[in-house]
Amino acid sequence: MHKVMLAALLYLLSSSAIAAEWHVSGDLRERYQSFDNLNFNNSANNNSWEINSRLYIKAKGEWDNGFSVFLQPQAVHTLLHTQAAGSVNLSQVDLLQAYIQHHVGDTTITLGRQQLVYGDQRLLGHLGWKDVARTFDGIKASYNKDNIKVDAFAVHPADIVRMTPSTTNTSGDSLVTWSHRNLLGVYATYTQQPKTGVDVYVINWNHSSNANVAPNSNINTYGLRAFGKWHHIDATAEAVFQSGDWLSGVSQQASAYAFKAGYSLDTWNTRFGFEYDYSPGDDKTNATTHKNFVFPFHTNHAHYGEMDRFSWANMKNIRLSVKTSPSKALTLMGNVHFLSLDKATGDWLNVVGTSSLYAGNPSYTETDAGTEMDLKVVYKIASVKGLKIVGNYSVFNPGAAVKERNGGIADQASFAYLIAQYVF
User: Residue 415 belongs to what domain range?
Assistant: First the structure.
């Protein structure tokens, strides 16, 4: 892949096109965050805090022959403090995106390291909230004409593995094991009118026999997402189904569903929202079938709670939300999540969807996971263009399902962060 990119770049630079027009921008973010009692047990102190500094530089060069180049290097520094290990400094420099693009008529070809962002990002997104976001190496072909857009891609996760540095591995570990994993897909959108239409997609996610996680898995994901906006009302509904092989000799049969709607008022640009997310769980009664919904590459953080206690698998989530802007500079957001398991005997899966927060057990009967409340404030500094402050505070009040799985203990957990972000 890198040799192909280099050859294309050399051709581009040696062509008869005039000099490129370059556009350069940057994004500097300072983030403090703290975690309190995420194990729901006050007697076992696992509290931690960290300060993250992140710098993105974006440079795009455009030629008059339809070619363009996009480069986005990143630098991240983390000061991580845990109760057990004290403080440690972690840092990295890498390329988040680096691709060559060729645009002719209604067709665009993108070759290199790039992000994939589709729909509500329930399955594929950039994880932009993380210090090191997700990116892929490969090729994407796009067709965009009138009210139809189609993307076809063949990629694999980029070798940026330093996603979650820790005191035991200061180079960091990835959220999942990237090696020997491939992603093939087609994502099509038909827009009937602005902000109203339908998405249809097919994604194949496969691991080779050498993959460290789920070797020989080959999962097909089929999805349909309808979205619309009419006057003061907006709504989105999505249904996703999976087939294929979870492991050798174990078939994948899963599904997931989401519906959300909102009503907006002109007063302070206020929106009241309702959302229901559901995915049937695996009760583990059939060892030859895996019924938990799995993700090509998860993006659950934005949907099922800021505290990342849930993924879109073996779950039910009722979300009530409000967003309002008393002024151009100030936006307030509030969310309440009523969370539960679909199958009490099944796994309670973490935000990544690949490991268990609590493993399933045939003796479990409780499904009430608890209630999470998230409060967020966004303030744009008028005197400094591009600067904004973001604060969030979240509380998780665990339910009977936590108490049953946690030795009878179900203490409150909390999470907070404060961000200063400057885009220039």
Answer: 2-423
